[in-house]
Amino acid sequence: MEWWLLAYLALGGITGFFAGLLGIGGGGIMVPILAMLFAHQGVAPEHVVHFALGTSMAAIVPTAVISARAHHRRGSVNWVAVKQLTPGVLLGTFATTFIASHLPTEFLATFFAAFMAFISWYMVFGRAPSADRQLPSAPAMFGVGGGIGGVSALVAIGGGSITVPFLIWCNQHPAKAIGTSAAVGLPIALAGSIGYVINGWGATDSPLALGYVIWPAVVAMACMSLVTAPLGVKVAHRIPVARLKQVFAVMMVSLAIKVLFDVWGG
């Protein structure tokens, strides 16, 4: 078995677990590692991050389905919020892929690292919401969804890094925020995948790629997430979410530094 296939399987297992655990798509983990793997496989340097973003988005689709289904079974998905966020999410994600496909690798890597650092800081030091804050009106939720989708397309995440803090800020229970975020990750991943396929069409003549999506990586990671995402959901309902977020924040900062070093360090 090729070494890279084993790496994809391991990566799928890790991201699937965290998708269920924290309601994230796993792009924060996948993008830097996929960029490293693709670079070793000979992908053109100017397109390494684009392929990592597109492949990550496509891999989030099955992970989001599995994670959302597991959370739904435990009654931890606010489907009203999902319905209100989804139209904006679809528009914001799809539109932003057209922008991301024309941005240089250095900018995308820097934006990714800065965003992950900010989210990590918020997870650890963010203030508790005021007791009377609730979810905003439907039009405002559409706008929030657009913002979540736009940022998600730029950094290839399922939106959980934004959606979970936003929902907790609106006084949603952490477990329900995580489950709702997992469900919102599906339209983000679908719109993002389609956008990266369209915008990456012709970028390579490799039979292993569809636009900016390397399909063997998607298949391998999806297979492992089938096993590990439900396990992550089970763990999420048993141990303190706050401590998990602290650990995850440290991991996000480490991966962000790794991306910057790979792209800017030569």
UniProtKB/TrEMBL annotation:
The chain crosses the membrane at residues 6-39, 51-68, 80-100, 107-124, 144-170, 177-198, 210-235, 247-265. It is found in: Cell membrane; Membrane. Keywords: Cell membrane, Membrane, Transmembrane, Transmembrane helix. GO terms for cellular component: plasma membrane. Its main location: membrane. It is a multi-pass membrane protein. InterPro entries: TM_pro_TauE-like. Belongs to the 4-toluene sulfonate uptake permease (TSUP) (TC 2.A.102) family. This is Probable membrane transporter protein. It comes from Gilvimarinus xylanilyticus.
